[in-house]
Specification:
With 229 residues, the chain is mainly beta. It has helices at 44-51, 58-66; strands at residues 9-11, 27-29, 42-43, 71-72, 75-76, 83-84, 89-92, 97-103, 109-114, 121-131, 137-141, 146-149, 159-163, 168-173, 180-183, 192-199, 208-213, 216-221, 225-227. The chain contains 2 helices and 19 strands.
Length: 229
């Protein structure tokens, strides 16, 4: 039997909670595997149709995409099922609108409007660090990027501010006391807080981060946060 390929739509019952889709709809766009996993991303078509509400149907979504009117992280979008995720920068140049994708407190993705200057940069979390055969440092980030650098100060769990035009690191945000973080998983999803304390983990226990948000103290594991400043 011939391979029919990947389905372009996804039943609402199978959609993850991050889509925030209501049960009144039967199907949503199925994000293609890419820089974000399917469990942590939604499709750009879903963003246009359900978050921005600038399209009524799939035909209109395809028309906008084919007109090359949408950019994600400064790159023209060519497919409506392109996966987008945390802190991705979405631009509509003709409308002079700029957004980043973040989590709301209910765990669903929402758009936060930013200005044009802010759209030139993006915060990424360092998920791994290895030394290449040539002695260079190779960093991997939460959005699937691989960056080569000679600076050995970068650590996993920290964040970088990336220049989207030059694809270069402009600032480094280490995970330390006093830093501002965004919680993107767990019961405190969508909250911003300041690091009060860091409890080092072991081989069996994860690193715990003590945070304060709006005067309330809470604790979460390191993998649930991203340093934003």
């Amino acid at each position: 039997m011939a391979n029919k390929g990947e389905t372009k739509c996804l039943k609402v019952n199978n959609a993850t909670s991050i889509s925030g889709v209501t049960k009144t709809k039967r199907f949503v766009f199925n994000p293609k595997s890419g820089k974000h996993s399917k469990t942590t991303s939604i499709s750009i078509g879903y963003v246009l149709k359900h978050l921005l509400n600038i399209c009524d149907n799939t035909k209109e979504v395809k028309y906008i995409i084919n007109n090359r009117d949408i950019l994600v992280d400064k790159k023209i979008v060519k497919k409506y099922n392109l996966p987008v995720g945390l802190f991705d920068v979405i631009e509509i140049p003709k409308m002079e609108k700029y957004y980043i994708l973040i989590y709301a407190t209910n765990g669903a993705y929402v758009l936060e409007e930013i200005n044009k200057q802010e759209s030139n940069y993006k915060v990424c979390k360092i998920t791994s660090k290895v030394i290449t055969k040539k002695g260079q440092i190779q960093l991997s980030t939460n959005d699937g990027r691989v960056l080569i650098t000679a600076n050995q100060a970068y650590k996993t769990g920290a964040s970088i501010k990336l220049d989207l035009f030059e694809n270069t690191i402009k600032e480094y945000f280490p995970l330390e006391k006093g830093r501002d973080v965004f919680v993107f998983a767990g019961k405190h999803t969508g909250q911003k807080g300041k690091v009060e304390d860091i409890k080092a983990g072991t081989m069996k226990k994860p690193t715990l981060i003590q945070l304060k948000s709006s005067g309330i103290d809470f604790e979460t594991v390191e993998k649930n946060i991203i340093v934003i400043n």
